[in-house]
Amino acid sequence: MRTLLNNSKIKLENLLCPNALLKINTSIAENKGRLWCAYRTRRIQELDTAHYITELNKDIEPINHTKLDATNENPVFEDVRLFSFQDNLLAFYTYLAGSPEMGWLWMCAVGMGIIDTQTGRITQQQSFRCYGKRIHEKNWTPVEWNERLFIITDFAPRIRILEAMGKPGNFILSECYNAKIETKSWSFGEIRGGTPFVSFPKQKSDWRYGFVHSVIYDYSKPKLFRTYYYTIARINLSDFTFQYYPDPIGIWEEENTEEYTRLSKLGSNENYNMKCVFPMGLVNYDEGVLLSYGKDDCVSRLKYFSWDFLLSLFSAGNNN
Question: pLDDT-based confidence at 317, cuts 50/70/90?
Answer without folding.
Answer: low
